[in-house]
């Protein structure tokens, strides 16, 4: 029996990125002879992302590209929750639409998952080899971030790892593969909504006893458009770590 993979792709002003990322994802699954669908959760982007998504539906078919828009910009965390309602696959892949997450890593996620029957496989920028071991996987890293953003990311991971020690090297990244029932079990328990969301998922997954593997990825900063990370998100993150510390 072959599995089906559902990619949740949240978009906000990704008109320029969407066609190529969708094409790359489609190719990756087709070349590996895997069944797939992409669920685009667009928050009424003013740049016309949804028009592009509709074109892609015509090109690839409505069973492959699902457009599940929302009325306005409601944030990344709830975009995943919304997308998850429409998933028909056995596995969910979550990734960004701006090429920070390259689809070429998806087959490695799948291979690691299959080899060890893992519940979650997360991409990591902060390990040089897969965990558990996966022959052929290469070093991860970040490209295109300035020193400040690198320090924020390292600091965020260090803080959460020190306070909560979930044993995962990259807690704030969102490029991951989940067993669908596992994600459906965890998501309702997650209370944060901003950048903390990714970290809280892993911390909760650990406390529920789910198995987590890591595959090194290279994270490349976006070329088109802007990141939505601001000072307020950093404060929210620290608060999130603290509240998890007292509840998990
Ligand atoms: N639907 C929807 N999509 C959104 C929203 N905000 C951002 N997105 C989409 O979510 C993806 C990531 O947004 P970015 O703004 O590019 O995030 P980033 O700063 O590059 O952050 C990335 O790296 C962080 C770790 O360092 C991650 O924590 C974060 O989840 C993301 O992967 C992109 O596809 C973007 O269009 C929103 O409110 N609604
Ligand atoms: Mg980005």
From TrEMBL:
Predominant localisation class: endoplasmic reticulum
Cofactor: Ca(2+); Mn(2+); Mg(2+)
Cell inner membrane is among the record's keywords: no
Residues spanning the signal sequence: none
Gene Ontology biological-process entries: alcohol metabolic process; dolichol-linked oligosaccharide biosynthetic process; GPI anchor biosynthetic process; isoprenoid metabolic process; protein O-linked glycosylation via mannose
Catalytic activity: a di-trans,poly-cis-dolichyl phosphate + GDP-alpha-D-mannose = a di-trans,poly-cis-dolichyl beta-D-mannosyl phosphate + GDP
GO CC, alphabetical: endoplasmic reticulum membrane
EC number: 2.4.1.83
Pathway in which this enzyme or protein is active: Protein modification; protein glycosylation
Keywords carried by this UniProt record: Endoplasmic reticulum, Glycosyltransferase, Magnesium, Manganese, Metal-binding, Transferase
A Pfam family matched in the record: Glycos_transf_2
InterPro entries: DPM1-like, Glyco_trans_2-like, Nucleotide-diphossugar_trans
Glycosyltransferase 2-like domain mapped to chain residues: 6-186
One function term, GO molecular function aspect: metal ion binding
Cell location: Endoplasmic reticulum
CDD domains (alphabetical): DPM1_like
Known function: Transfers mannose from GDP-mannose to dolichol monophosphate to form dolichol phosphate mannose (Dol-P-Man) which is the mannosyl donor in pathways leading to N-glycosylation, glycosyl phosphatidylinositol membrane anchoring, and O-mannosylation of proteins.
Quaternary structure annotation from Swiss-Prot or TrEMBL: Component of the dolichol-phosphate mannose (DPM) synthase complex.
Similarity remark: Belongs to the glycosyltransferase 2 family.
Protein name as annotated: Dolichol-phosphate mannosyltransferase subunit 1
Organism for this UniProt entry: Exidia glandulosa HHB12029
């Amino acid at each position: 029996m072959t599995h089906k993979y559902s990619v949740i792709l949240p978009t906000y002003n990704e008109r320029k990125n969407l066609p190529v990322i969708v094409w790359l994802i489609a190719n990756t699954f087709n070349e590996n002879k895997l069944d797939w669908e992409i669920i685009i959760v667009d928050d009424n982007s003013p740049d016309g992302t949804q028009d592009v998504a509709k074109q892609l539906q015509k090109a690839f078919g409505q069973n492959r590209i699902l457009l599940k828009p929302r009325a306005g910009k409601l944030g990344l965390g709830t975009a995943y929750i919304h997308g998850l309602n429409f998933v028909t696959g056995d596995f969910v892949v979550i990734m960004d639409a701006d090429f920070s997450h390259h689809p070429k890593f998806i087959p490695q996620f799948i291979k690691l998952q299959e080899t060890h029957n893992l519940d979650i496989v997360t991409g990591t920028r902060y390990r040089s080899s897969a965990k558990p071991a996966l022959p052929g996987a290469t070093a991860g890293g970040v490209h295109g971030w300035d020193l400040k953003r690198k320090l924020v990311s390292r600091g965020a991971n260090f803080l959460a790892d020190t306070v909560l020690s979930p044993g995962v090297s990259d807690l704030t990244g969102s490029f991951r593969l989940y067993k669908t029932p596992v994600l459906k079990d965890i998501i309702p328990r997650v209370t944060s909504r901003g950048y903390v969301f990714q970290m809280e998922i892993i911390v909760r997954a650990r406390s529920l006893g789910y198995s987590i593997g890591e595959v090194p990825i290279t994270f490349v900063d976006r070329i088109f458009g802007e990141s939505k990370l601001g000072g307020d998100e950093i404060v929210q993150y620290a608060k999130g770590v603290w509240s998890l510390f007292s509840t998990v």
